[in-house]
Amino acid sequence: MGPRIGEGPQMPDKDSKATMDTEDTYGSKASSEPQNLRPRVFHSIKFFVLCHSLLQLAQLMISGYLKSSISTVEKRFGLSSQTSGLLAAFNEVGNTALIVFVSYFGSRVHRPRMIGCGAVLVALAGLLMTLPHFISEPYRYDHSSPEDMSQDSEASLCLPMTSAPTPTPSNGSCSSYTEAQHLSVVGIMFIAQTLLGVGGVPIQPFGISYIDDFAHHSNSPLYLGILFAVTMMGPGMAYGLGSLMLRLYVDIDRMPEGGINLTSKDPRWVGAWWLGFLISAGMVALAASPYFFFPREMPKETHELRCRRKVLASAASPVSEGENSPSEQNPGESLKKQDGLVQIAPNLSVIKFIKVFPRVLLRTLRHPIFLLVVLSQVCMSCMVAGMATFLPKFLERQFSITASYANLLIGGLTIPSAIVGIVVGGVLVKRLHLGPMRCGALCLLGSLLCLLFNLPLFFMGCSTHQIAGIIHQPSTQPGLELFPGCAEPCSCPLEDFNPVCDPSTRVEYITPCHAGCTSQVAQEGLDKSQVLYTNCSCVSGHGPVLAGSCDSACSHLVLPFILLVSLGAALASLTHTPSFMLILRGVKKEDKTLAVGIQFMLLRVLAWMPSPVIHGSAIDTTCVHWALSCGRRAVCRYYDNDLLRNRFIGLQFFFKTGSLVCFALVLAILRQQSKEAGHKSTTSSPGLEQQRL
């Protein structure tokens, strides 16, 4: 075993003494702390990598969980898709506002403790997200009934003896207290999402820099690879957790005495969305606890230095005869050459840092390769952000599947496909030793194939079935209005929602009352009871209708659809590593760290923040029937499926086309630069070109 800082005195040889002298600069502050009061495990960078992998996994799990339950939150609190998209985007607001200053304060703070404090804030924000469930009234899926226990019985039937002027219950409940409670609930969720973003600011950058500082330089890529591999499983686990939680009823902690008469296939079903936030917040809190015991600086890894000494000793004589390699240059000289913002930032005050930052930002944005690659990544991120936020809802509406099954498909197929695409892209870059030109060609090929696999999605779907008084198909019976003559004596409440389906004609009615049904029958099946409504005056033959919405005629297309989406996600992820290499090789060496920070900042500002709002607004334009709450539009009950599919997939096609165009311009510029470089080298000195080759 080699010498360790804090152990008893040993007699190192000449080489190891020189090595330790260079490393004492990292461990001097760490040795001043009471190390014997800390367990030895907290001075191991391997244990830090393990803790940080688990923390980033839990953090991405809690930040991505809202996307898995976005349609459920809309139904529970009466939100439009635009509002829910804005809610999802608020996770990036706090993150973007503070991420720029992380590079300034990164070397001046106790990084493990800052990570721990940020993780605690993330856990508290997750608990705050569950607060609306506990301060709200129990969920009432049938507003025409005063008690949940009597819902689905006589409340939604056609009762001619009911007097017409009876006010609707919603008008009676629209008090100032109800509106204030709704605003407070929505405000709490927005604040919680903002705090989620703020708490996540120090976690990734401080953790990566801490690993890179105290891991051996040959181990650092391995540790970071393990970190990213574990972290990438977070979104998939978020969708998996959403699939499990949404199978449970939202008020599982306060079920009514008579139970509920809903199944997860009912459009009024609301799952236990809040339970996933509790679980993931607990995981973040557990993962955050070790960070308060890590030292500010720990001894740098030395376990591979002995092997490297043997290699350097055997190669000492050849090296001394030739020129010194860049790695053996004087450290002072190499530091003088690095005059970027990253090197001078610790010596600047906050005001001077703010003044210098715009100038360096403009200098970085002048690089055409950097600008075009970032724009292509912005387009890809817009596509990913919109797909991740609203793809579960799209699958629910387009193919009549449950929210739980939609999350299972995304978490089990789409997310792993994206991970495989990222890994394959990195392997291709490493194995084939791709230069900038070939990296640009690989990005262009991946974008082109992703765009081509997007085209069949426009045709994989079907139109919305006929809904009495809302959507009328020319091929079916004419003359249906919101209140046909057969339902006029029933005095149906305007805001009641208990859909029933006529299986013979595939016509859906908003409530049994709108179908003119006067009685209800429950048939016991093999695994569950089936509710039928009979004596329906608005149904041909007065036949029975089934409780629940009519199933989609193209439910069998959901698996081919999600397979194409997953294949497109893999091809889009294929461009991740080569585009990142283009950024690193397209800017000056001293600006690389800042360029990566600017890249992530632009992705958040231009993609992850506006994209969910854009997709949500586009989805809202396809709504054909809104639920009303106190005179305002709440959640959408029915969409025009053809319009929804064309606009949702059309937005994806638009962003993929933008990414393809940017990569094509990048490749054209690289070819032009290559020709100019080749022309200059051949005209100046043919021997120099041969030496470079």
UniProtKB/TrEMBL annotation:
Residues 1-34, 316-336 are annotated as: Disordered. Signal peptide: none annotated. It comes from the Eukaryota. GO terms for biological process: monoatomic ion transport; sodium-independent organic anion transport. The keyword Metal-binding does not apply. It is a multi-pass membrane protein. Residues 480-540 form the Kazal-like domain. InterPro entries: Kazal_dom, MFS_trans_sf, OATP. Pfam families: OATP. The keyword Transport applies. NCBIfam families: oat. This is Solute carrier organic anion transporter family member. It comes from Spermophilus dauricus (Daurian ground squirrel). The lineage of its organism: Eukaryota, Metazoa, Chordata, Craniata, Vertebrata.
